Amino acid sequence: MSLLGLLTTVRTNIRYTYAAWTTCRKSSSQSSSSSHTDCYEDDIKEKILAASLPFVVELGWSRSALGAGAQAVGYPGVTHGLFPRGGADLVLYFQRTSNLNLVEILKEMEIKQRESPIPPALFVENALQSRLKMIIPYLNRWPQAIAIMSLPPNVPKALATILTTVDDICYYAGDRSVDFNWYARRLGVAGVYKATELYLIQDTSPEYEATWKFLNRRLAEAVQIHETLCKMDLGSAGPKDAVTSAFVTARNILGLNWSR
Description:
Elements: H1 3-22, H2 32-52, H3 56-59, H4 63-72, H5 87-115, H6 120-133, H7 142-149, H8 155-172, H9 180-200, H10 209-231, H11 238-254
C-alpha cells in the first residue's frame, strides 16, 4: 500500500472505530425487527445520557448521575443498568458530542479562513481553545473523568477520542500531508491538548487567562520541535522513528488493522 493510501486508511479507521462505539449498528444480516430494537435501545440510551449531563456537577460521572438522568426523561432510575461501564459511558458520550460540536465549529473556522487567512498555528490554537472550553462547565468533576478514562478497560476509547479530536483539528487547519508530518503534527497537537487540559483543571485565573497563555506557549514549543525534527537528515532518523512508533503504538492499543 502507498503511503497516501495508508494514511487515508488510518484516518478512516480511527473515525470508523470511534463511531462504531457510539452509533447504532445496522447490518444487512440482521432482521429488520432486530435492527429496529437495537436502534430503539440506542435512542433511549442517547436520551438518558443527554439528560444525565446536567447532574454531573452534583453527582459526578457516576451511575447516580445516569439514574437521575433516566428519571428526568421518564424512565426508572434503575435504567442506568443499560450502561455497563457506568461513568465511563457518560464521559464517552460527552467526549463524542463535544467532538461533533467541534467539527461544526471547525467548518465555520475553515470558511472564515478562506475569506481572511490566519497562520495554521493560530487556527489550531483557536480550535484547541474551543474544544477545551467545552470542559469548563464540568471543571470541578473533570479530574474524576480523567481518572475514569485512565483505567485500562477505558484507555482504547480514550485514545480514540483524542486521536479523533486532533485529526479533525489538523485536517481543517489544512494539513493534507502524507509523510512523517502526518504523525508528528497529530502527536504534537495531542500532547499540547492534554498538557493544557491538566493545566486548566487547576487554573484559578480570571476567565482562565493563564490557561490560554499556557496553550499559546506550548503550541509555540511544539512548532519549534516539529521544525527541528523535519530538518533532521536521514542519518538522524531516530526521533522521527520514535514519533512514528508512538502513533503506531496508539493504533495497536486501539486494535486497528491498517493492512489491506
